[in-house]
Design the sequence.
């Protein structure tokens, strides 16, 4: 077993951000590995899997341009598709890592437009804060910039 050095980051590492109270509460949870991130936002009154997304940056086959590959799967009739897609895309672009994301914010009827907006606002703010916390804790402390997980030459 490898001896841990004081101050060394242990992987996987878990971070959590919580905002709001009651039906407007949102929790953003990130699991950071050495080469990727799993991020989820849970909130409202009944968290459930409405959509999941996987995003990863890669170099273009014939140039140095960076592309983002993104796949989203959602449960029919759920409004979580766009939030999940946006979260995965934003995390992957900013962290330059593979990201698996999910969004699970659900309010039970009856609810007002204000309830929905507050829950969504807290969820978005928690997601943004989680991203900032990940960048602050990991990107600068590694001593190197995270790299793209796969180059096209490695794919084929």
Sequence:
């Amino acid at each position: 077993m490898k001896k841990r050095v004081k101050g060394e980051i242990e992987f996987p590492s878990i971070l959590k951000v919580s905002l709001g109270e009651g039906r407007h509460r949102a929790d953003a949870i990130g699991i950071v590995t050495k080469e990727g991130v799993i991020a989820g936002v849970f909130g409202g009154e009944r968290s459930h899997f409405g959509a999941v997304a996987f995003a990863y940056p890669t170099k273009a086959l014939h140039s140095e341009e960076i592309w983002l590959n993104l796949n989203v799967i959602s449960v029919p009739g759920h409004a979580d598709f766009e939030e999940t897609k946006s979260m995965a895309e934003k995390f992957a672009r900013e962290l330059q890592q593979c990201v698996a994301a999910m969004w699970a914010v659900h309010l039970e009827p009856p609810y007002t437009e204000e309830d929905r907006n507050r829950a969504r606002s807290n969820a978005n703010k928690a997601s943004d804060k989680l991203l900032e916390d990940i960048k602050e804790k990991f990107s600068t402390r590694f001593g190197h910039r995270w790299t793209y997980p796969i180059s096209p030459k490695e794919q084929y």
The chain has one domain: 13-155. The chain has three helices and six strands. The CA atoms of residues 15 and 134 lie 8 Å apart.
